[in-house]
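Today's session is about reading a structure prediction critically. Students often jump straight to the picture, but the first step is always the sequence itself: look for stretches that repeat, for charged clusters, for runs of hydrophobic residues. Only then move on to the predicted structure, which in these notes is written as discrete structure tokens rather than atom positions. Here is the chain we will use throughout the hour.
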Amino acid sequence: MSETVIIGAGITGISFARHYKKPCVILEKEKKAGGLCATENTGGYYFDYSGHFLHLRNSEVKNLITKIMKGNLLTVKRDARIFSHNALIRYPFQANLYNLPLEVKRECVLDFVAKPELGKTKHDFYSWLISTFGKGITKYFMRPYNEKLWTVSCDKLTTEWVAPFVPTPALSDVITGALTDNDKAFGYNAEFFYPKKGGCQAFIDALKDGLNNIKYSTECSRVDIKKRVIETTDGKTYSFDKLVSTQPLPKLLEQISDLPANVALAKDNLDWNKVLNLNLGIKRGKGKAKLASGMNWVYFPSKDYPFYRAGVYTNAAPQMAQEGRDSLYVEFSRRPGDAIFPQVSAVVAKLRHCGILDDSDKVETSSWFEMPFAYVIYDSYRTPALRVIKSFLEKNGIYSIGRYGAWKYSFMEESILDAKKLAREI
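Below is the predicted structure for this chain, in token form.
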């Protein structure tokens, strides 16, 4: 019997199944639900698959999360910093220049005042940065950080992804942040929510509670759109009326037999990067090092540091490790074909150098997690390619949703809302 088949028991797939009122089955390739929102326990240290936090602005989603978590939820005021010029700068950089050297601060403020208008023919991210923040802020933070994160030049990126991820303060905010150690909140993630215990996995487990239609260790290998059949790597088949895919869009397209030439060309125009995530379990020696005291994460724009961000889970939720210990994550961006993992000892040395660790801290455990699809590259090819692909998929009763299914830069709340919307429409 044909039914709706969902590929992926991550946050999007589970949310869709939760709101869908018709028969459906979820195919999940791993042994547990969660996808990139899963959590691992290694020797008493809890690690998510990189830093994932709930940013809730929709009242309906907030009420749902509060209800299903049954008290296992913390509200955290974000404490994020940028390590620049051997100083800690409050996030966002553009509104918190206070701790920078005087000459750098002066350059950033004067260039902000003198910033040019964006030309009508300029649609790239670099031109937008210059016209929005001026040359100084762009030079010292915006360009080096974003090129480290995205792994492509800023002039190759469009601005389709910018809102709400890049705060744009007024001149008065820039001046205030240059003259005072200002703590005004900016950005979509000024406050976030996180489980008291269990990491992101606790949220996933609560969201899927009551669902008994998940087939674990079941990976899709081929989609036959003519016969309306999915084949899995273990030789099983599932007939579908509608297919909801939450896996990365390029993977779905690779699984579909006999793609039309224009769709195959559009697939080849999709670009992305990957992230290598190093988890570290730290036994503190003399107490928390300066940079790790209370801060949730720190951004690193300088090429002197190979990682773009480092964070401390236990500063949001102390139960992510035992007393006197911290769970840390360190993130590196790579192009898809780059398989080089840094030496853990070299990474630890850099963390000691910048002050996240000190010499008395002991690394008790370390592990790598690779995200082969991390950030969707917003270049000039993306939007035209998606129009072709989406039209083809929906004509064949296939709906690709979620951060990687819809091929976009988004947050967890958006995945929940997108899944709910589709569940009501089909």
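Discussion point for the tutorial: The chain has 13 helices and 18 strands.
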